[in-house]
Write a structure and sequence with these properties.
5-stranded antiparallel β-sheet; alpha+beta; 23 strands
Length: 564
Amino acid sequence: MKRNRSRLALLCAAAALVATGPATATPDDRPHLYQVHAPLGTEQALLGGGFDVVEHREGDNLFVLGDPTTGAALERAGFTAAVDQVLPEPRGAATADTFYGGYRTVDAHRRHLDQVAREHPDLATVVDYGDSWLKTRGRGGHDLRAICITRKRPGDCALSPDAPKPRFFVMGQLHSRELTTGEIAWRWIDHLVGGTDPEVSGLLDTTEFWVVPIANPDGVDNVQRGGESPFSHRKNGNDTDHQGTTCGTASHTHHGVDLNRNTGSNQGLQNASDRQCDQNYRGTAPDSEPETRALEALWRSLYRDRRAAEPAQPAPTDTTGLVLSLHSYGNYVLFPWSGGAPDRRTGNDAALRDLAQELAELAGPGWQYGQSGQVLYSASGTTDDWVYDDLGVASFVWELGSSPEETCGGFFPAHTCQDGFFWPRALPMLRHAARHTAAPYAPVPEPPTGCATRTDDTDTPVVTRTPPVTVRMTVSGCEGDARSASRVEVRFKNLTGSLISLDLIAPDGTAYRLQHQLVSTLPDPGGSFTVDLSRETRDGTWQLRVHNVIWVGTGDLDRWSLTL
């Protein structure tokens, strides 16, 4: 029950999920959040039914935003649904700078980019790469703006795919209601120019960092109008009536086009509605929206076209660059293909999958990695598919969310969660992705000669004791640092009544948690663990610490191995 209470408290704290200005709502007509049984492989009927399916999965369940009538509609469509939460009505309003406890408005983001460029002329350049939908119609709207950050040399930050440095591109709030993504983009910009991170300072000499903090400013305008209860607007500002139907104000009947269903890559295959009021409405045609066309033009100006002539063939291993689109609120690292059958693979699947695994492990417990259809649901017309499909460039989506036992989550987490929860997880992932920008498809280097996997197969009893059992392995003849994807394999035998914690202790004393309380249900419940040990030298004495928590537990550590 604790897991359910914590998630419900997180998903929509003080957030009324409606699309237009504040209005008084009774408990009977306020927005509702439904938990819907939709196992992987069966979700397309739900996604194609016009329901507002949020980007979060718990086992066989997805979640749907709607009104009090949505539950009956779900039942008529053949789904088992239960109300998870009735959400409060909106209140308050945004200031010129912030809303909902500290999240920045579109205008604040614009001023922030200008300030960074003004204060760091040797590092930062602001680029206007297009106009939002409302601006193209002369109805207000916004410029679409990016910032390039690098230690400037001739040719840097030019809109040319032949620029001298590889480019790491980060984008926030393509879906406007996903507040954490814009906040992470803001903090990433400040971190890049802050001069406090030696690794990032070094990368500024060799890498261009491009950031679009707000990819959908018209949509964010709608969200921030809710003030202390943000409006749950996902799409862009396109309110054209194409189908003779005026869209409503509830979250599942908003106007606009879903910019992450609007590209021409795998367009219309799955979870991309042709009904304009649906949250996943794909638009009248591929690339129909100015925000989509502007992003695609920007990417073509930043990256060489390295896509193989045959779709199933890989882009070359020397392809440079990496594009990251931030979303919320699951815990996923996703990569192409998002559209098509879940078992369809890109030519560079192995490299993308390896890097995604490393990023997910850096994020911490509860994160999954894979193609969208493997861990969440399939989606077509997405930006990550387009970047790989059109250019062959490594492309990822991070769904930033909360683990069940944490106190932050949902589209609208408290702003205080950014310091203590989201940013500490995002920063190591951003650093790691930046390190791979120059060669994301490069094969993982093999250990130096003479540094093969080390194995200790001495049986060691792990009967409960205090302190925990510690076994040692001395590594020599392996120059240099360990890999970011080092492997530890642990095998047990004859375990009974055991509850085991595992830690790897590096030669310098740093502890890496491998397993928290592994329950023994089999004679050998061991496992293989990937650990980022890139900050550790290979040579030295490594220790495996095994704590058998249950006092009646018996059994043996059969063997363990290290691949550094």
